[in-house]
């Protein structure tokens, strides 16, 4: 009730200012009101505060064919307030017959239609309001894109939704809306929007990739793989990045052969970045495909001279070469590279662990333990503790190994570690 009365009051202020000439120009969406009509509205408000029925009778007696649409609108609000929807609708419609651009009357009419469950009629009325506001849909889409670039996904979401209201078939607006939802981590909402778009146009590459991004954000790697594989089967041009992503996903899922297939496919595509090349080398090393790893390392060494490769990338390539040497049993070459890196970067936990592995392979367990212990103090504590525990087991120090594994469990409890502890406890008991 307060909202409706306030609406009339605000209208009275506006209409009075128009009648008295305080506002320059003319609002094309508000009908003119004379001084006398402004006084009528003022009296209707006063009456409505005490007796709504009396206010309706008074206002009804002042409305004629020549009177302002503002009076019909105000009467419609009063009927609306009383819950007399049919009378209210008639008043709003009369106001619109007198002044078709009267947006507030049309919006109120739409509200009643919604309350009556007449959704299509309400949508039609609101569409007229939106279209007559003279803002073309593509400007809302453009505004949404600007907000995305500015890092304001909430404003972008609103802009894209406005664009969709005016032009529901605008795929770009839907895509922008999806991206704004992803930026707000509303991944499930984004997923629901993308699927119908794919059903309409399954050839659109960006839709497939956006859906993959959503699944990756949800850590649903199986669905990400299935989506990329489906895209591949309908001949979507994936490009090197997508093949690398598939390779990484298969590798993480413990499917090395599928990973290698996609890495090799990625390497035949154009637009291969140095970072992706390093990722491929890493994948081949993990899968112990040393021939491919060696060829790619040499390829990376050749092209890095022609590219602006940063120091971190150069270091990564050297580490990968050292890992290759390690797997190829060339421990001296591997150790030489690692120690050169360690001279400039003594806190590199990955390198410390790798050096420990070399000493372990060479049978120098004491030196291996020293490097594992250093690594545990540089951020790779769980891995270092596990490796130390394995050495203690080899030395027959089951009690020390159990203590190290219990420390692992205190940081991150894991089922297989618990089983390992129990089996070591049994061995320790047998020794007693």
Can you lay out the helices and strands and say which pair or pack?
Blueprint: H1 2-20, H2 35-50, H3 52-61, H4 69-82, H5 85-98, H6 103-115, H7 119-132, H8 137-149, H9 153-166, H10 171-183, H11 187-200, H12 205-217, H13 221-233, H14 239-252, H15 256-267, H16 274-286, H17 290-303, H18 311-327, H19 331-344, H20 349-361, H21 365-376, H22 381-394, H23 398-411, H24 415-431
In short:
This protein is mainly α. The protein has helices at residues 2-20, 35-50, 52-61, 69-82, 85-98, 103-115, 119-132, 137-149, 153-166, 171-183, 187-200, 205-217, 221-233, 239-252, 256-267, 274-286, 290-303, 311-327, 331-344, 349-361, 365-376, 381-394, 398-411, 415-431. The protein starts with a helix and ends with a helix.
Radius of gyration: 36 Å
Largest sheet: none
Secondary structure: number of strands? 0
Mean pLDDT score, rounded? 83
CATH class (first level) name of the domain at 2-132: Mainly Alpha
Task: Report, as a whole number of angstroms, the end-to-end distance.
Answer: 86 Å
Poorly predicted sequence stretches spanning 5 or more consecutive residues: 1-26
Model description:
This protein has 432 residues and is mainly alpha-helical. It has a domain of 131 residues: Alpha Horseshoe (Serine Threonine Protein Phosphatase 5, Tetratricopeptide repeat). It is built from 24 helices and no strands. Helix 4 runs antiparallel to helix 5 and helix 23 runs antiparallel to helix 24. The longest helix has 19 residues. The N terminus is likely disordered.
């Amino acid at each position: 009730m307060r909202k409706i009365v306030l609406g009339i009051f605000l209208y009275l202020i506006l209409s009075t200012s128009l009648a008295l000439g305080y506002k320059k120009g003319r609002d094309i969406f508000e009908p003119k009101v004379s001084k006398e009509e402004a006084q009528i509205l003022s009296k209707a408000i006063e009456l409505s505060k005490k007796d709504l029925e009396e206010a309706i009778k008074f206002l009804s007696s002042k409305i004629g064919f020549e009177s302002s649409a503002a009076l019909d609108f105000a009467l419609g609000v009063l009927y609306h307030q009383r819950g007399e929807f049919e009378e209210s609708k008639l008043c709003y419609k009369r106001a619109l017959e007198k002044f078709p651009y009267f947006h507030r009357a049309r919006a109120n009419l739409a509200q009643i239609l919604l309350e009556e469950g007449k959704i299509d009629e309400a949508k039609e009325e609101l569409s007229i309001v939106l279209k007559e506001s003279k803002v073309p849909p593509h400007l809302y889409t453009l505004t949404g894109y600007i907000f995305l670039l500015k890092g304001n996904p909430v404003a972008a979401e609103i802009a894209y939704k406005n664009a969709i209201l005016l032009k529901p078939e605008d795929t770009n607006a839907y895509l922008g809306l999806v991206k704004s939802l992803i930026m707000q981590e509303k991944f499930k909402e984004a997923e629901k929007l993308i699927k119908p778009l794919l059903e309409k146009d399954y050839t659109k590459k960006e839709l497939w990739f956006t859906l993959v991004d959503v699944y990756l954000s949800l850590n649903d790697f199986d669905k990400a793989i299935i989506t990329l594989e489906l895209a591949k089967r309908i001949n979507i041009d994936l490009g090197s990045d997508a093949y690398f992503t598939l390779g990484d996903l298969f590798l993480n899922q413990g499917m090395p052969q599928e990973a290698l297939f996609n890495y090799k496919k990625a390497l035949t595509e154009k637009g291969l970045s140095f970072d992706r090349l390093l990722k491929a080398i890493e994948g081949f090393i993990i899968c112990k495909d040393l021939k491919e790893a060696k060829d790619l390392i040499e390829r990376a060494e050749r092209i890095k001279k022609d590219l602006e490769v940063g120091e971190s990338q150069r270091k990564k390539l050297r580490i990968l070469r050292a890992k290759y040497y390690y797997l190829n049993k060339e421990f001296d070459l591997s150790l030489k590279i690692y120690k050169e890196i360690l001279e400039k970067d003594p806190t590199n936990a990955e390198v410390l662990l790798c050096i420990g592995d070399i000493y372990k392979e060479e049978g120098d367990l004491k030196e291996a333990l020293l490097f594992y212990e250093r690594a545990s103090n540089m951020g790779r504590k769980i891995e270092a503790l596990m490796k130390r525990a394995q050495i203690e087991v080899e030395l027959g120090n089951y009690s020390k190994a159990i203590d190290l594994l219990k420390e692992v469990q205190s940081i991150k409890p894991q089922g297989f570690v618990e089983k390992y502890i129990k089996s070591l406890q049994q061995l320790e008991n047998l020794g007693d």
